């Protein structure tokens, strides 16, 4: 059997006809940029995210980048974030000329360790940028409390967490701006690139609308240096087809996650994911901790199981961040977990039979690595 980490084709089989109709409609309409689909998607997505406004953009990276720009964060400023994330999180901070300051993570949730934030705040700190990694919400009450007391902005990286909630409220609706990605592998993925910034601030909405379209609200009048980061109408139309399904898909992901938990229950050598109380985790990834991780990963590939390592090198040890001079050993929990984590096949259409095969194969491969030593 072969079980891929993600199979986008299976989802296409269920919605392809609807998508094709809507795409053809766009093609025939002659309106390809900032049209009706953008507007409708922004309205629906804002509502879905418990926010007043949404600004459609070209990517999740640009959502982060333009959120920082809209908040006037730039050279000389510091943004507190994690090193246990995808590089786009800190790339956005670097693009605006600010400096990422890394906090260690909580080993249970893989998210920002809220008890370690305050000691890193300096007069230069402007914002906290938590990442809801793998679809798991961060402890937003604590983060918002710290931000309020120190007068800091909060930008939420929700790129892996469409539909996740904390105490009944969608992630992205707590901070100043919530940033989403519709990259095809995300839990709400389109068929190209796409992103969205959500906010309750009309001012920030208008800033981001101007920034995404060459820095001006009125065509051919430019107030500041912007970018070209518009979502095209084809992607917006596809996302409008997909958005009504996201709750169902997230529910299926959760069912699959709990089935994995059950199947792994008799194998204490596998650490399965935990959830914070009062959160709705959407399992963008199902990530276990396992010893001999790299050998197991290699054997799994040979046995047809598409596991992935998110992410093999923490950001403070990447070449791009050498200039920050953050030494190895300074984020011990991040570094340790980087060596242990492995994400298993996870998508709504995954079958029980496939999950059983994945679990059996993980255990078989782990035992093989132990026998080898
Ligand atoms: C995917 C991702 C991004 C970037 O999104 P793009 O749409 O690919 O630019 C940012 N942060 C995290 C945590 C992501 O997973």
Summarize the structure.
This protein has helices spanning 8-29, 36-48, 60-70, 88-95, 140-150, 202-211, 233-242, 246-264, 293-302, 332-340, 352-372; strands at 53-57, 78-82, 99-103, 125-129, 153-157, 165-166, 169-170, 177-181, 195-199, 279-280, 286-289, 341-344.
Overall pLDDT: 97
Number of strands: 12
Q: Order of SSEs, N→C?
A: HHEHEHEEHEEEEEHHHEEHHEH
Structural class: alpha/beta
Give the CATH topology of the largest domain.
Aspartate Aminotransferase, domain 2
**CATH architecture annotation of the largest domain:** 3-Layer(aba) Sandwich
Report on the structure:
With 373 residues, the protein is an alpha/beta fold. It has two domains: 8-103 and 111-244, 3-Layer(aba) Sandwich (Aspartate Aminotransferase, domain 2), CATH 3.40.640; 247-371, Alpha-Beta Complex (Aspartate Aminotransferase, domain 1). The chain is 39% helix and 13% strand. It has eleven helices and twelve strands. It has a seven-stranded mixed beta sheet, sandwiched between helices. It has a three-stranded antiparallel beta sheet with strand order 7-6-10, with no helix packed on it. A two-stranded antiparallel sheet has the order 11-12. Helix 2 (36-48) runs parallel beside helix 7 and helix 8 (246-264) crosses helix 11 (352-372). The protein is globular and about 70 Å long. 48% of the residues are buried. The model has no long low-confidence stretch (mean pLDDT 97). Bound molecules: pyridoxal-5'-phosphate (PLP). Residues 59-61, 85-86, 88-89, 131, 157, 159-160, 181, 183, 195 line the site of pyridoxal-5'-phosphate (PLP).
